[in-house]
Design a protein that fits this description.
The chain is mainly β and 392 residues long. Helices cover 0% and strands 36% of the residues. It has no helices and 29 strands. The strands form 7 sheets. The chain has a 6-stranded mixed β-sheet, with no helix packed on it.
Length: 392
């Protein structure tokens, strides 16, 4: 027989109880023994978990593995845990072929990978060897393994030879030495998972229901942290002579030390302007004015998202590290310094927001270059300010 831990699972959280402990010294096929408990919970996603207090036998036996001479501890926790499951999946997990299998997530909280040779998983406590894992499968240290309960065991190593029942059911994970961990659950609502509050936690209050769940990743969702990389009002280098600079002006290595410098908003003709630039001469406004700003990004690989905010009057083309990033109020196709914006800016002080692919940001030094275009030689104003925020 086995040492099997059983939780009575409804749609709220479980209580834990040891239900039996006898060794299987030869490491052979384990038997099963549960406490004959009750099913917990209903389908409303808010019921509590019910503890099974049954005990089926002596829990103090100590066996020997037969191959190492070390004592077999039936109370030793499994190296893996059933961390989360969803018995009625419609949209939380969609595979490449469009299928939406029910799913089970295993977690390895340890510091070493666990090879699954000899491990099994089952939706029937009376049939503990119902699905044997493919030889060589493993769960990395601190990692998660997502299994598809699709009753198509030959489809992929992650596919299991059974499906989960959405009305009520059982689920058990067994180690090669016969130790087991099992769940009994009541009706589960579509796209709600039963998940441990923290990965592989145990005891009262350990389980909760989660809409869509977190298949294949930690149940502890760390809220994103937003930080500002470029503040609005930052100081920019600018060229307001109307004479186009060297073509390399958009790149990091360009020498802009001779350019003027001042804080944004930069421009002329409006009361919100902080740094006044030269917009033209007696013959009219220049079509273009050039701006550059260097900034740093630490550990860009950890970024989840980035957002650029742009206030421009009238139009602009923006380059990041020498590559064109975006245009606002400018025509498509090839543009030069002598081209005009499509029209007057819709707002002189409003910021437009653009999602930026964090992969475009480099570790350390980065360079923004902006060419601001007037709508006409008679335009009465010009303006530029910009911000950049990132999310980790």
């Amino acid at each position: 027989m086995v040492a099997l831990w059983v939780w009575m699972v409804g749609c709220g959280g479980p209580s834990e109880v040891e239900t039996g402990a006898d060794p299987t010294p030869d490491g052979g096929t384990p038997g099963t023994e549960d406490g004959g408990g009750v099913d917990g919970g209903g389908a409303d996603g808010g019921s509590t978990w019910t503890e099974d207090t049954g005990d089926t036998g002596d829990t103090g036996d100590t066996g020997d593995t037969g191959d190492t001479g070390e004592p077999w501890d039936p109370k030793a926790p499994l190296e893996l845990c059933i961390n989360e499951l969803m018995a009625s999946n419609a949209a939380s997990l969609v595979l490449e072929d469009g299928s939406t299998p029910d799913w089970i997530e295993l977690h390895n909280p340890g510091t070493e990978a666990i090879v699954l040779d000899g491990w099994s998983i089952s939706d029937d406590l009376a049939d503990p060897r119902k699905h044997l894992f493919v030889a060589g499968m493993q769960v990395e240290a601190g990692g998660f393994l997502l299994l598809h309960a699709d009753d198509q065991a030959l489809l992929s190593p992650q596919s299991l030879g059974f499906k989960l029942s959405a009305t009520k059911g059982e689920l058990a994970l067994y180690a090669p030495d016969g130790r087991g961990q099992a769940l009994r659950y009541g009706a589960m609502v579509t796209d709600f998972s039963a998940a441990r509050v923290s990965d592989c936690c145990t005891g009262e209050g350990c389980w909760e229901t989660v809409f869509h769940g977190t298949p294949g990743s930690s149940n502890v969702v760390i809220p994103p942290v937003t930080s500002t990389v470029i503040e609005s009002g930052s100081a920019w280098r600018y060229l307001d002579t109307g004479i186009e600079p060297d073509p390399s002006w958009t790149e990091w290595g360009f020498d802009d030390s001779a350019w003027a410098e001042g804080p944004a908003p930069l421009g002329f003709g409006d009361t919100h302007i902080v740094t006044v630039v030269n917009g033209g001469d007696a013959s009219g406004n220049y079509p273009s004015t050039w701006f550059r700003l260097a900034f740093r990004v630490e550990d860009p690989s950890s970024l989840r998202a980035a957002e650029l905010g742009l206030m421009v009057d009238d139009g602009a083309v923006i380059w990041l590290n020498g590559a064109e990033l975006l245009r606002q109020n400018m025509a498509e196709g090839e543009l030069g310094a002598g081209d005009w914006a499509l029209g007057a800016a819709a707002s002189e002080t409003g910021f437009s927001r653009y999602e930026l692919d964090p992969a475009l940001l480099l570790e350390g030094d980065n360079q923004l270059a902006v060419r601001v275009h007037q709508a006409a030689s008679t335009s009465s104003d010009l303006g530029l300010d910009l911000s950049l925020t990132v999310e980790r």
